[in-house]
């Protein structure tokens, strides 16, 4: 009895310590991860890079302007005129080149860049959603681990109380040594279970801290209440997935990328027409003299035409390969859609199954608690064997462990469904407050 009192004191101390620690909700954890998680920050940086690349200058739709300067010294020994056998020419020219037509290759290149920018956004969102789901799983794993510690402590308290009773009964000759040994074995077994539960809790604590970019040994306390969204519908989840699920959107946008790449390759069959404009100054002086006192300016303009007649069938081969690649991307899009439909169906069915299991576990817990209370009364009166009492105790402990795990498992499945539906992360969360 004395030991049970000590255990109760330790339990109260543990609860007081946890209450003094900040109680973290899942929403708080998600907000913290969005702000501090390194993978999310990298994903936003890569998204910004892909956005920066969407520029008409990268597609060749802007003129190229160069400033060219030169100084040319020549020594012509064959010149018979004295003083004119060496001279220096100095020139400065501003040149502009612009492609007027290249078979629309630059237009398709810009469209491909815009498509690549979309894929960059989808990839960043996919990464962020994956991290948020990982944070949620770590959060509920830690919550479950703390629940398991509480259950293990309760089991240990029951077993130690039973050991105390067995020893007292043995002192008064109401129990034999075998009953005391059996109770002692159960105490040792429950002590090992409690140690394992504590280890799992500390590991889960560190795992969640790592995802939140906190010092890994920071002590955490989380809000363990779980509620479920009653408005989820399978058809709405699937429809939302087709419009918002990043992995599928990447496959769909890849088809457009392949279409634009085919247009780029076909542009090789057309001539390239360009214009060149320049204005410069030049001056020639005798001897080695880079003089700039008497510069003369001149203007030049040219229209260029470049048409490849034969390049070893490279253009034809590239065009054929681009068509094959387009067909492959279409097939992969169809496969991605089928896989998405299967994933939604599997997750939805598993979600409903876990909700049913949770209800069964609640009923089982009620029965196990009632059975344990009745078994304890009979055991105290000496009308129940230690084996039967231990079985009732284990049934109660298993029921409490199972109901905690079932609730958290169902919640994780619900969050996966929300990810499919595009409701796990908003576009603002994916972009971040510091993005341009």
UniProtKB/TrEMBL annotation:
Coiled coil: 321-378
Domain of life, per lineage: Bacteria
InterPro entries: OMP_efflux, TolC-like
Entry GO CC: cell outer membrane; efflux pump complex
Keyword Membrane: yes
Pfam hit, one: OEP
One MF annotation (Gene Ontology) recorded for this entry: efflux transmembrane transporter activity
Subcellular location(s) of the protein: Cell outer membrane
Alphabetical keyword list: Cell outer membrane, Coiled coil, Membrane, Transmembrane, Transmembrane beta strand, Transport
Family (UniProt): Belongs to the outer membrane factor (OMF) (TC 1.B.17) family.
UniProt protein name: Transporter
């Amino acid at each position: 009895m004395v030991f049970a009192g000590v255990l109760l004191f330790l339990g109260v101390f543990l609860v007081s310590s946890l209450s003094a620690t900040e109680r973290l909700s899942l929403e708080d954890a998600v907000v913290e991860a969005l702000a501090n998680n390194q993978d999310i920050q990298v994903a936003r940086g890569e998204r910004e890079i892909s956005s920066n690349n969407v520029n008409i200058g990268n597609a060749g739709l802007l003129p190229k302007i160069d400033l060219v300067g030169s100084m040319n010294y020549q020594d012509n020994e064959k010149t018979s005129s004295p003083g004119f056998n060496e001279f220096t020419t100095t020139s400065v020219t501003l040149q502009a080149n612009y492609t007027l037509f290249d078979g629309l290759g630059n237009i398709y290149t810009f469209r491909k860049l815009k498509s690549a920018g979309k894929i960059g956004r989808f990839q960043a969102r996919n990464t962020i959603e994956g991290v948020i789901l990982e944070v949620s799983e770590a959060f509920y794993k830690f919550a479950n681990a703390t629940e398991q510690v509480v259950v293990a402590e309760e089991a240990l308290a029951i077993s130690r109380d039973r050991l105390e009773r067995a020893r007292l009964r043995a002192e008064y000759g109401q129990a034999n040594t075998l009953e005391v040994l059996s109770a002692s074995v159960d105490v040792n077994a429950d002590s090992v279970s409690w140690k394992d539960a504590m280890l799992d809790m500390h590991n889960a604590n560190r795992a969640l801290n790592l995802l939140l970019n906190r010092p890994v040994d920071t002590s955490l306390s989380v809000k363990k209440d779980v509620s479920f969204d009653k408005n989820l519908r399978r058809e709405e989840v699937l429809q939302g997935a087709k419009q918002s699920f990043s992995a599928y959107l990447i496959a769909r946008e890849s088809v457009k990328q392949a279409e634009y790449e085919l247009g780029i390759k076909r542009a090789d069959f057309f001539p390239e027409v360009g214009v060149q404009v320049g204005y410069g100054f030049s001056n020639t002086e005798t001897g080695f003299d880079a003089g700039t006192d008497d510069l003369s300016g001149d203007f030049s303009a040219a229209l260029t035409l470049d048409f490849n007649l034969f390049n070893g069938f490279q253009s034809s081969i590239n065009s054929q390969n681009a068509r094959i690649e387009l067909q492959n991307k279409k097939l992969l899009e169809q496969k991605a859609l089928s896989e998405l439909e299967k994933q939604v169906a599997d997750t939805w069915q598993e979600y409903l199954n876990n909700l049913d299991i949770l209800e069964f576990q609640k009923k089982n817990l009620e029965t196990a608690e009632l059975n344990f209370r009745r078994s304890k009364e009979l055991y105290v009166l000496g009308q129940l064997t230690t084996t039967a009492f231990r079985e009732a105790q284990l049934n109660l402990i298993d029921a409490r462990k199972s109901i905690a795990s079932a609730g958290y498992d169902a919640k994780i499945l619900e969050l996966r469904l929300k990810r499919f539906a595009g409701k796990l992360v908003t576009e603002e969360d994916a972009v971040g407050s510091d993005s341009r």
